[in-house]
Design goal:
The protein has about 850 residues and is mostly beta strands. The chain has six domains: about 160 residues, BT2081, beta-jelly-roll domain (Jelly Rolls, Sandwich); about 190 residues, BT2081, beta-jelly-roll domain (Jelly Rolls), CATH 2.60.120.890; about 80 residues, Immunoglobulin-like; about 140 residues, Immunoglobulin-like (Sandwich); about 140 residues, Chondroitinase Ac, Chain A, domain 3; about 70 residues, Macroglobulin (MG2) domain (Immunoglobulin-like, Sandwich). About 5% of the residues lie in helices and about 45% in strands. The protein is built from five helices and 64 strands. The strands form 16 sheets. Strands 2, 7, 10, 12, 13, 15 and 16 form a seven-stranded antiparallel beta sheet that branches. Strands 3, 4, 11, 14, 17 and 18 form a six-stranded antiparallel beta sheet that branches. Strands 20, 23, 24, 26, 27 and 29 form a six-stranded antiparallel beta sheet that branches. A hairpin with a 2-residue loop joins β12 and β13. The longest helix is centred in the N-terminal third of the chain and has 7 residues. The radius of gyration is 34 Å and the shape is elongated.
Length: about 850
């Protein structure tokens, strides 16, 4: 289902500037230097009436010159929201009234009337009905109302209609407030908002309702009692100032500070994006490509561009969150998918810089059709500013790194080359050479290799070029601690029963430790670089007391069997003194001036890997995977190389799903694994209609270098899976799927009640939906349920005795804007919703449904 956001208004005039770069095979980004701006006319709307202004729904309401009274009338049309789902529609509506904290609120109107009249042309689809309603109130209390449902067709002729108003108590009363509404289809929310008994109609795309000459009367007197602009003669234009070819949320901010504006400073011009608060309480520092049909993205049918360049200045008010997102939509194997592009964080900079990012390419059988680009400042840090003067596709150049030993000129094999802006390094081969493709720009880089000191430098890429790197062999500092782990355990990870041994050379001490002294040593457990648990506070790391040799020339050895792997940390030692032979007095401990405590690591190995931010080389015991949703994983002691597993590692979830990572580096990715509970979420639809796998943004950097197999088991018997859909939520948008088929997915399989699929490379968030229309939910009211606060702002909380499986929120025109599997939670984040009136649907574990109207400030 496509995301639909009320009151989001933007438009562009598409300028496709094809083949202007040196490579004529790929096309350029429209208005890539943001030099073309205009005050864009979006729509006309009737004055005094509330109607849909969302770009997706502009076609649901039109100004018409076919009129009964005056020159104009209003046409309302129901349009499809999802071409593949006949029941997923957007209705046309016009309402005299507004939504307030108390609910639907009418316009001031001090009169007495008992009938509403109007003229209409209509052509309503079978099974559907247009709806007209009137509500009168006095002193905030509803005193009377009326509603009619119109079906069939008027054959392009104007008919007149009359709605009797039924008053509380049967007596016509004076009103000081009026609500009048016309809707092209009979969506259930209309009845609920108006307080009417629901009909049995089903909204259908194509229903047409043309309304004019709206007025009221009292009794037998035919004299019209007018309402403001009842004949829809007065219209107002809505426009927004934006760069041509781009859209924004400028119409969502009413306090004068716009998220997207034009800048021209010191000879540099372009677009300024500011993270400002919208009227619905959300930060909307976003700029996106958008076409004339108000669909994000523009037509693109050329080859994949190799890279994208951005010239920008970024001034965040907190931790940097700005990013550039590029993707292409198209066809692969007859299916709609997304491929190519990438997601690129932007570093803060006080001056304008140009930065290049290499884009993921297309598969050979992928045909691109649309290009999508978002510039987003993130969900936090109000007031952050991003200036962009240019954003264009570009060529890449071949850069050859030649890495050699500075002492003897020999090539340095398997050196890692890290380039700023790229998450994973390149590596030299046997000849010390690595070929890297980079777009034009300036790059900081570092080169590291086992046994060498890290080399750093900067390269300016303007053409194909060679980079020569001379690396200095690493020599341990004789004034520093030196450790040689001698037990042959290549990965330095220890489990119960493993043999551990190491030779340790202490730095010089003052006074010097006498040769052949017995050390007073305790085994400690380091939980961080400078934090450790004393021997009495930590479990016994060794099965028995380890053997510690006498010290000689500041060198000693330690060895023993590991006895406990139920705690995670690094084996450490604490030396507090030496034993002195006092002759007849026996052995007496002589304390050191200061205790010496240190974690045990292989000096050469750790000197290299620590520069890469890795724990590799440290004597790690008891590697654990976080508790929570993950209930099972293999015995790590049976895996030969935890840094690069041969067979992969499978995590089993409480909800009967499995997540499989091939060749996963456990040691270096413990922090990311700790986020799996939140980052990967598997849950079932409360109606048995689907299963979802949410891959969240917080583990994207980790997962982009792995492919992940996900298997959903325990699918209920009798579920007839007619369609399999993997949908992607676009970067920076709400949780509703925004496109049809997900790119970077393959290997679908449904067998024996288990559905398996694969995700790999460059994704942000996906939902897997297994649709089954044979299961229906039953509905009844449950008075014990409480939803609060009402009105709400950024969160809704539910208090109910029974377990909640799902919460959905729909807008006044029937669009689902929030759909969240609760998984034991009792609140829903509503920060992305605009201010307005919503129907909140709560689906319980037993399938029962509660509906309640609520207001967002």
């Amino acid at each position: 289902m496509k995301k639909h956001l009320l009151f989001t208004v933007s438009v562009l005039f598409l300028f496709m500037l094809g083949n202007i770069l040196t490579n004529a095979q790929f096309s350029q980004i429209p208005n890539h230097d943001f030099s073309e701006w205009e005050d864009k006319f979006l729509m006309s709307k009737p004055q005094g009436w509330l109607t849909e202004t969302s770009p997706d729904a502009i076609e649901t309401r039109r100004k018409s010159e076919n009129a009964v009274d005056g020159d104009y009338s209003i046409e309302l049309v129901t349009i499809p929201n999802d071409e593949d789902d006949d029941e997923d529609v957007i209705v046309g509506f016009v309402i005299m009234g507004s939504f307030s904290e108390e609910g639907l609120k009418g316009e001031a109107w001090e009169n007495r009337a008992d009938k509403l009249h109007f003229s209409a042309r209509h052509n309503i689809e079978d099974g559907d009905a247009a709806v007209a309603m009137v509500i009168l109130s006095n002193d905030g209390n509803r005193i009377g109302a009326g509603l009619i449902e119109i079906t069939g067709s008027s054959n392009d002729q104007w008919d007149t209609f009359e709605i009797p108003i039924t008053f509380n108590g049967g007596t016509t009363l004076d009103a000081d407030e009026i609500v009048v509404g016309f809707i092209s289809s009979a969506i259930s929310d209309v009845y609920q908002i108006g307080g009417f008994e629901p009909g049995s109609f089903v909204p259908a795309a194509g229903s047409f309702f043309n309304v004019d000459n709206v007025y009221l009367t009292l009794g037998d007197d035919p004299t019209p009692i007018q309402i403001e602009n009842g004949s829809f003669e007065d219209w107002e234009d809505v426009s927004v100032y934006e760069p041509i070819g781009w859209g924004s949320y400028n119409l969502e901010v009413s306090d004068g500070l716009l998220p997207v504006t034009k800048f021209d400073e010191d000879g540099v011009s372009g677009v300024k994006i500011t993270n400002v608060m919208s009227d619905w309480g959300d930060l909307v520092g976003v700029l996106f490509l958008q076409d004339n049909d108000f669909v994000r993205g523009v037509s693109y049918t050329a080859d994949a561009p190799p890279a994208i360049l951005i010239s920008y200045k970024y001034e965040p008010t907190g931790a940097p969150e700005a990013s550039l997102f590029v993707t292409f939509e198209g066809i692969k194997d007859g299916e709609e998918v997304e491929q190519g592009g990438g997601w690129f964080p932007l570093d803060p900079t006080a001056e304008f810089i140009q930065k290049g990012f290499q884009l993921h390419g297309f598969d050979h059988d992928f045909t691109p059709e649309r290009l999508r680009i978002n510039l987003w400042l993130g969900e936090n840090n109000e007031g952050s500013v991003l200036y962009v003067s240019n954003l264009e596709f570009a060529e890449v150049y071949d850069i050859t790194f030649r890495v050699n030993n500075n002492d003897n000129g020999e090539p340095v094999q398997w050196a890692n080359i890290h380039i700023d802006g790229y998450p994973w390094p390149w590596q030299t081969g046997d000849d010390g050479i690595a070929d890297i493709s980079l777009p034009i720009g300036s790059y900081n880089y570092s080169v590291s290799a086992m046994g060498y000191s890290t080399y750093t430098g900067t390269i300016n890429v303007t053409e194909n070029d060679d980079v020569f790197v001379l690396m200095t062999p690493f020599e341990p500092d004789p004034e520093e601690l030196f450790i040689d782990i001698t037990d042959g355990d290549a990965d330095k990870v220890y489990f119960e029963g493993n043999w551990f041994s190491a030779n340790i050379t202490l730095p010089p001490t003052d006074p010097a430790i006498p040769n052949n002294s017995d050390l007073v040593v305790s085994v400690v457990l380091f939980t961080g670089p400078d934090a450790y648990l004393e021997e009495g506070d930590a479990p016994n790391i060794f099965a028995d007391a380890p053997a510690v040799s006498p010290i000689n020339e500041n060198t000693f050895s330690i060895s023993g069997d590991i006895g406990n792997n139920d705690v995670t940390g690094v084996i450490g030692l604490k030396i507090t003194g030496i034993m002195i032979d006092m002759g007849p007095g026996g052995m007496v401990e002589q304390p050191l001036p200061e205790p010496i405590a240190f974690p045990i690591f292989d000096t050469y190995e750790y000197a290299y890997y620590s520069q890469q931010g890795s724990d590799r080389g440290m004597a790690i015991v008891g590697v654990s995977i976080p508790d929570g949703n993950i209930v099972s994983h293999p015995q790590f002691s049976q895996i030969n190389d935890l840094y690069n597993t041969d067979e992969g590692i499978t995590f089993i979830r409480e909800d009967h799903g499995t997540i499989y990572f091939p060749w996963l580096n456990i040691i270096d990715n413990r922090d990311q694994l700790a986020q799996l509970n939140d980052g990967l979420n598997i849950a079932g639809d409360p109606n048995g209609q689907g299963f979802y796998v949410e891959v969240d943004l917080n583990i994207v950097p980790f997962l982009q270098s792995h492919w992940v197999d996900v298997a959903l088991g325990n699918i209920p018997d009798g579920v007839n899976v007619e369609d399999v859909l993997v949908v992607r939520t676009q970067f920076g948008e709400t949780g509703s799927p925004a496109s049809d088929k997900a790119g970077n997915t393959d290997d679908y399989q449904l067998e024996d009640g288990v559905f398996s699929f694969r995700i790999h490379g460059g994704f942000s968030r996906y939902s897997l939906v297994l649709e089954d229309e044979s299961v229906q939910a039953r509905t009844f009211e449950m008075e014990s349920a409480t939803l609060f606060p009402n009105p709400f702002n950024n969160q809704i909380t539910i208090s109910v005795a029974e377990a909640v499986k799902e919460i959905r929120m729909t807008s006044v025109n029937g669009q689902t804007l929030v759909q969240e599997i609760m998984n034991g939670k009792n609140s829903v984040n509503t920060s992305l919703l605009p201010a307005g009136f919503y129907i909140v649907t709560v689906i319980m574990e037993d399938g029962s449904v509660i509906k309640k109207p609520m207001i967002k400030k």
